[in-house]
Amino acid sequence: MIPFSYDFMQPMYPLLIQQFLDDYNLSAGVALDIGTGPGNLAVELAKVTAMDLILVDIDGEALRTAQSRLFELGVDNRISTLCADVEKLPLRDNLADFIMCRGSIGFWPVPVQGITEIYRVLKPGGCAIVGVGAGRYMPETMRRRIYESMSASDRTTSPRQYTLEDYDAFARQAMLSDYRVIIEDDISKGCWLEVKK
Predict the structure, then answer these.
(1) Is residue 195 part of a domain?
(2) Which residue ranges does UniProt annotate as crossing the membrane (predicted)?
(3) SS3 content of the chain, % helix, strand, coil (to 5)
């Protein structure tokens, strides 16, 4: 087994951010990165937009790493970190233009509560994307290599895996009206819940 590291997933993040830019026309406003970990998505978003970034994670050490990486990058974005549980976000209603959450939903005790909170802090006209996967811009050979590395790692906790039906049920239980479930080619490659307000 190889030691788990976010480093072997690094090629995914710029491609995923490019997909978000193309899909949601991101440039300015407030963006939340829920379950940011070491800030990989936030770093890539900061490189290509003027968005104010709020990095949210339940792990304070991960937030310190993310903040340090963004500081070293020297970006001009306004950046803040928030050590909080997605199921109880200490943020005002209608705050964020865009919310991204990649890879953490499988660790949430009650996904419906996390999705409800994300919707609450999403601004009218905003969009949130919650799920797992590498995005549609990832070349298949790269995707296979990354997924094989993840499977061979010594990661001690594995997230729960959800089906298309699970994501749809979460959205209905959260009483969302404008959402869709997106499958990346097939469910084993990724599944996302896109929420609009």
Answers:
(1) no
(2) none
(3) 40, 25, 35
Domain of residue 181, residue span: 6-189
pLDDT at 8: 60
Degrees to nearest 5, angle at CA 124 with 44 and 29 = 35
Q: Is residue 160 part of a domain?
A: yes
Does the structure show a pLDDT above 70 at 7? Answer: no
Number of H helices, E strands in the chain: 6, 7
In a domain, 197, yes or no: no
* pTM listed for this prediction: 0.92
CATH number of the structural domain spanning residue 132: 3.40.50.150
pLDDT, average across residues 141-149: 79
For the record, the structure tokens of 5 come out as 């590291």
Residue 17 in any domain: the answer is yes
Nearest partner of 192 among 8, 11, 16, judged by Cα: 16
pLDDT in tens, 115-135: 999 999 999 999 999 999 888
Task: State the pLDDT at residue 152.
Answer: 63
